[in-house]
Amino acid sequence: MMTTNLNLKPLDKLNIFSLKGVQMKTFHITWLTFFFCFFAWFGMAPLMKIAREQLHLTKDQVGNIQIASVSATIIARLLIGRLIDKFGPKLIYTWLLVLCAIPVLLIGTSQSYTSFLLFRLAIGVIGASFVITQFHTSIMFAPNIKGTANATAGGFGNAGGGAANLFMPLIASAFTSLGFCSTEDSWRYAMIFPGVMLLICAFLYNRYTLDSPQGDFKNIKDENIKSTKNTFLIAAKDYRTWILTIAYAACFGVEITVDNFAPIFFTDSFGATIAVAGMVAGIFGWINIFARPLGGIVADKIGKTWGFDGKTLLLAILLLVEGIGLIWFAKSGNIGMAIFMMFVFGLSLKMANGATYSLVPFINPLAVGSVAGIVGAGGNIGAMLIAFMFKAKAGHASKNIIENGVSVHKDLIDYTNAFTLLGFVILAIGIAVFIFRTLMAQKTVKVDELVLSTGK
Question: Where is the Major facilitator superfamily (MFS) profile domain (predicted)?
Fold first, then answer.
């Protein structure tokens, strides 16, 4: 078990190349764990074409599966926020990883639409990992650097979605090339890898992290522990929590949507192979490595001069750019333009993610976990609603495609109208955040030190 570090205070600087102290060890372990959680969550996305054909899934069934993949996360994030306020991030993260590894490992046993749907629903619970990562990072860093630290951990972790799109087709191909399975069954074997990685991360988290710079929650003296009663109600009663929830639905909700739908969009709209579509969609995920941290860094710098209002203005501008970029992306006439516009709206979207969570720790310092949970759930509520919209707006097409010298008739799905409508919705939300920004800033109080449920 890790011993408590002599530095019992949150760090006021972020040196990403350091492993010194419990704060930096926790920072690196929490983003790496979050990375593999996202990898596991979206591991099936680039392999859906293979699974769709083997299980004979219809367009509506694919839509239902995408909805299921984000639905369970909503409840999980709301619950996780309250649990980590009370029991601490280390214990909750460890159990989350162990429990979610089960459906990840077993989804390959699916033989029907129903079983596949249920496993996809269960895997979605792993999305609650984001709340724990943001909470754990917040408690390890001082207010002047929280936005940067949260955004960096979130950005590095979110890149797991892009890594899944890039590497899962390669992992599936490797199993086929090595003779373990046929191409049709390769998706089943490929999902073993993320399941095993979740179990490894559970061990690392339990062994090498602490709940706070002072130690684990259970070991901190009772007199130093703040009451954690009603932290969810405290967060829920603050209207700023809900404005950020809607904003996060407009950025992170769209990110989840693109992670899920981009591979199919590129295969069905532009005729890309699974490997190429996964690689292209992976670009979107890899933007997280620098874009989300950039959003947090810029927000922190703006906050020093213009405070909460300046950060909120930045968020509104980023959402407006995202909306415009989405519309252009949907109207792209070729794959080259689509990739470029995906980079444009992806950059603003992921910066908006970072900007949103640079605001979260300052809504109410006594309920950071609950605020993070509610706002985080907003991202999945947005993703779920968008998935319903995509299911309703998806067009159907068919085309003869040459495979191995043979003409094969394929049923395709067209998401052009869905992406266009989504762009206009994001524009409207960006305008709303711009209008409400001054009102939000008026309620903000100065936070000199983040007081968490474990005390100072």
Answer: 26-441
